[in-house]
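Quick one: C-alpha cells for this chain, please?
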Amino acid sequence: MAFCVNCGGALADEARFCANCGTPVANAGSAAAPAVPVAPPVPARLEYTIQGDNLQIARIHLKPGQELYAEAGKMIYKTTNVMWQTRMSGQSIGEKLWGALKRRMMGESLFLTYFQAVSTNGEAGFAGSYPGKIQVFELGVGQSVLVQRDSFLLAQSTATLDIAFVRRLGAGFFGGEGFILERLTGPGAVFIHAGGDFVEFILQPGEVLQVDTGCIVAFDVTVDYDIQFVGSIKTAMFGGEGLFLATLRGPGRVIVQSMTLEKMRRELSMGQTGGDQHKGLDALSGIFDTTDT
C-alpha cells in the first residue's frame, strides 16, 4: 500500500490526491513510459585464419561459449574441448522438417553440425570438398548476401542460412545458377567455398557486369541479377561461351570464380577432349565429332 509523503496517510489505489491533506500523489495519472526497443545482441567477433592457396582450410579459434554450425562432412579436425552435435535447426518438428527440405533444395545436407568450445579456448578446421577458395563475409545485423547453392561451409550460430529464389524466369533457366540461391543473413561471420580463384567487383549504381553462366559465387542483395542473349547465333555456336551470359547490375559487390565444379568434373572425366563449360557445337549433336573404330 502507498502512503502520502506529506502526512503519512494511507492512499487509495490510483488516488491522485491524499484524502487527508490534499497533497498530489507523485506520478499519479502519468502515462506509462514507452517501451524502448532493444537492439539484438552483437556477437563476439569470431577469430579465424585462412590457410592455403587453392586447397584452403579455415582454422576457427573458438572462445568458451562461442558456437558455430557447419555443413555436414566439412570438418577436418577439432580440439578435444570443442563439443559437437548434429541436429536439425528449428524449434518445432514442422520447422525442423521444413528447414531440412529447404537445405536439400539448396544442395546442402539434411543436418547441420554445431560446434561449441567449453571451459577453455578451442579450435576446429573446415575445408571444401574440391580445390577452390574460401570467402568470409562479416555481416552486420540484418545484412544479407546471396551465394550460389551448395557453397555454404560454416557460420556463427547468430547468422542464418535460408533459401532464396531467383526472381526472373530467364535467369533461373539460363543463368547457370538455377532457380535457387542461398541467403546468408547476419549478424556474424559466414564462410562459403567455391572452385578456382575469386575475383571481386564493386559495381556502381547502373554499372553492369557480364559473367559466364555458372561462374557467379556471391553478390549483394542490392545487385540485380538477370541473363542476356550473346547477340548472335554465330557467336553462340562457335564462340564456345553458350547462348547466354549472366548480367549483374549495381550497386553492390559481386564475386566470380575462375573454375566451376561442372568444368572440373568434365575435364577430369574419361573421354573428354577439353574445352570450356559451354560447347556451341553441342546443339549439332556431334556432327563434327569423329569416332575411330
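The longest strand covers residues 132-139.
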